[in-house]
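tool_call: predict_structure(chain=1)
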Amino acid sequence: MATFQAKSVRRREDVRLLTGKGNYAADGAPSGTLTAVFLRSHQAHASISALNVTAARSVPGVRAVVTASDLTDVNPIPGGINFPRPDGSPAPKTDRLLLANDRVRFVGEPIVMVLAETREAGLEACEAILVEYDSLPVVVDPEAAMQPKVSFWVTRVMVFDDDIDPTDLRDVLWGYTTRSHPTRGQVLMEDQRVTPLHLFYSEEERGGAGGPKMAYDCLLDPDPAKRLRSTAFLENFPPEVRQRALAVWES
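tool_result:
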């Protein structure tokens, strides 16, 4: 009987996954399955002054275009838990709508959901949706973002450039691991107000003394000339070199 204990095992799935040949649940959708595509906010904080989805509904292959006005009988996502703050005052409780209504509060917040026969049709419909925003104040400084009134429940904040999609966990992890310096990229704030629900704080910290919070600077150098270029496999090697490398890997 073969054993793999205390032995180096060569991975077999890397080439398939790294070259786009992986097989995922979404790759095998049953016949008749519709695809949901979301139109998301590109603004961090803004009021929605106008929303027009008429053209989107006429795109071939689109079965439905759903906005917040269509979900008045659907309960929002509950926000917060009914526990008091350390000083005895009520904890903040902000329910979150499934789709933004009159205001967006973060980049990537969904505004419209399109149900279509194909992803391409859904994307085309999203392109046809007209949204007008009135920008509102935003917090972009790591230290300001960690102030208690802004983030009573937040213990860590990551600040990225706009090329990182905050709704994509893989993008966030990549941006954090490749752009945040292990020491200079961290800003520690001591004695911040915390919620007693965060059990990793000590009893004293949860009891009202306050605890630390951390912000991570994942921003690129503001001077483009000082930024390191991408080292991606597909972007830095000619096709013949990539083919030889893959042939060696697969052999």
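agent: The longest strand covers residues 211-218. Proceeding to next step.
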